Amino acid sequence: MIYVVIATTKERRNRLDECIAAIRESTIPHSIVIYENLDGGCVLATKKAIEGLDAEIFLLNDDMIIEPNCLAKLKEAYDKNYPNKDGVCQPYMDSRRCPSAGSPYCHTSVIRPFLEHYVHCGWDTEFGQVMQMKNKYTVVPEANLEHRRVPMSTKNKPLYENIELDETYKMRNASRERDQKLFLERKSSGFKDRFV
Questions:
Q1: Taking burial as the number of CB atoms within 10 A of a residue's CB, which of 52, 74, 108, 166 is the most buried?
Q2: 2-191 maps to CATH 3.40.640.10
């Protein structure tokens, strides 16, 4: 069974409904796991959502909309490239400028170690970069999703004045500096603990 895992917050239920509606259009069997984040940070919520799972998962944000064949294309690429379930497939997202695994399709055993250090940001970039360094990272161009995030400035404020940040973005902004510092420290060490 493939588990589509979504961390969310209560004020994002409308976004979540749209996300789930798109997932239900998927062309292959799956199960949806939703974890409502009450205790801060999407990393902790994701960690709790996959607790006890030993399976292939596809992580989505509640503001992402997948195309009907996205899950099938990810599964097909994963089975072909990683028969030992030791890599990650990432759907195509035109907003990504560097190797990232913000919406990874992988096995829970592969992602768990990357959910240990961060609060909200940085884990996905570390995950993507490390898996690329290991030659275990595949972007699947046929697996498309739309990320309907709030456009943010480099100062962590919405680009448009009439947009109020919800709890998810407030958590992101509150932990961003800490997570970014941690990421840069770990990157400067070459993520050496990931290659033991």
A1: 74
A2: no
pTM, full prediction:
0.84
Instruction: Report the C-alpha gap between 90 and 51 in whole angstroms.
Output: 22
Angle between helices 42-49 and 167-188 (to 10 degrees): 90
Let me know the angle formed at the C-alpha of 150 by 138 and 95, rounded to the nearest 5 degrees.
25
Q: Spell out the domain ranges in the chain.
A: 2-191
